[in-house]
């Protein structure tokens, strides 16, 4: 008889809107459950538990310190504002609780390095909450990009993620508050664009980042819209655009010498149960340039669980292996997070330094 996977017991530190989605995902994952929720006000934690149908007996705490003392919590999901991540992520892992950290994970790579070092010292699993990475569509797309006969050599990547914030968002959302999420749209939507570029390039860091001129900022100086170009010394180039001022857009285009991949809903698929993309290979114009010799293939990848539940399932599998078998934490997720943060830092430095090219650190 196959060994049953252990159930990972989650605490949720903070009642942000995104925690609604992830708490549901924890409930859908077969190897995870929510056992505790903390807020700065216990009534808010109680309301969150009640409003979102969390399991009977879920414990409510009125401070983040209290939930860290709960020995019945194996792993913590932390969706706090980015400015609080360093303090509470380190405090979480120092209590030997595994860490699922909402993105953007830190204000800069120096802060992230302190979080990741604490994870390694304490032997806990780390993962950032970039959900689309876990959809089976992502693996299928990577198969096609890895086929030299169909895709060829990577030449260029473009990514865009935008959504238009309403008046309430612009006035009070944490993502436009310099004291809470000083990276603004670059840390929020830009995180996804940069992760997509790194994913498509096999996580090879670009050599140089240069921000495009005339980004939009609010009165506090927080970025509301920006764009940048990334280059590699071998000639590859990538561009991205992220914005709180533009209609919802979620695009990736990956262009190779023999083929091109496109998708238009990479952050949140149009539907939970399936996700589309297109791929064209070895095509061209027909006689008279009246059409294409080979039109793009339309692919649709189905899934029984939404991508956020697959994320929780994979994270919990890794935690379960540590708990049950003494395995080492999987370091891949630390490395991917750090590379994403390095590019964010370089783009921000280019904006701050008059849009000059900046070498991407390592």
From TrEMBL:
Q: Name one GO molecular function term.
A: nucleotide binding
The UniProt entry, under InterPro entries, shows: Gfo/Idh/MocA-like_OxRdtase_N, GFO_IDH_MocA-like_dom, NAD(P)-bd_dom_sf
Domain Gfo/Idh/MocA-like oxidoreductase N-terminal positions: 8-127
Q: Which residues form the GFO/IDH/MocA-like oxidoreductase domain?
A: 140-261
Give the Pfam families listed for this entry. Answer: GFO_IDH_MocA (PF01408), GFO_IDH_MocA_C3 (PF22725)
At the top level of its lineage, which domain of life is listed? Eukaryota
Q: Which family does it belong to?
A: Belongs to the Gfo/Idh/MocA family.
**Name of protein:** Gfo/Idh/MocA-like oxidoreductase N-terminal domain-containing protein
> What organism is the protein native to?
Dioscorea zingiberensis
